[in-house]
Write a structure and sequence with these properties.
Blueprint (H helix, E strand, L loop, with lengths): L2 H8 L9 H11 L2 E5 L4 E3 L8 E6 L2 E6 L5 E7 L4 E2 L1 H6 L7 E4 L3 E6 L1 H5 L7 H28 L4 H16 L3 E3 L4 H7 L4 H13 L3 E4 L2 E4 L2 H6 L3
Antiparallel strand pairs: 1-8, 2-7, 3-6, 3-8, 4-5, 4-7, 9-11, 10-11
Length: about 230
Amino acid sequence: MDADWLDVLEKMPLFQGISREDLTLLIGCINPRTVAYAPRETVAVAGDDFTGIGVVLRGCVTVSRDNAAGERVILSLLGQGDMFGEMAAFSGKNTWPASVTAKENSIILSLPPDMIISGCTKACPRHRRMTQNMLGILTQKALRLNEKVGYLTIKSLRARISTYLLEQRKEAGSDTFVLPMKRHELADFLNVSRPSLSREMGRMKDEGLIDYYRSSVRTLDVVALRAELQ
């Protein structure tokens, strides 16, 4: 395993509390594979056979699903060190619950799920720690999924936009921030059409709530944005 990749894995919650030496031994035991993907190349398709838990070593991927109307809904955008497929590994269904697509040139590490769920025959401490970490990750992901469901139930488009922008503002710690998604990706994420999103953001700009240029956004009236959530 390349030293640069070990640096990425060391920072992941899945390997928290595992020394670099033990991590090297653990990776050797798990025997994962790495695959390179070009922009817009498919990593996994919803409904296809599950092939393993993915880790983004480099680049960025989009996780999405089609709704009942056949429209793509973006569930998450994952970058270096992020993981996907862990819910499927423990579901017992052996199929991908969502599609994963490379947003840019990416390298994905694929972890065999049985090695994480069952561990090794020696039941070594590093394997046990990894399994414990995975259970914690699944718990946190379930909580975030509940939050996501609540987020998508917001009926007003302006309230959805306001919620998203306020969350990005909080994460950036500044009134000015760069959106991590392109406009069409944000429309998919909010489950609205791109023209509707653009029109509503244009109105919010005209009313002095926000300002933006390309992917850069500035919140001008935080009080008014919060009022949209009520």
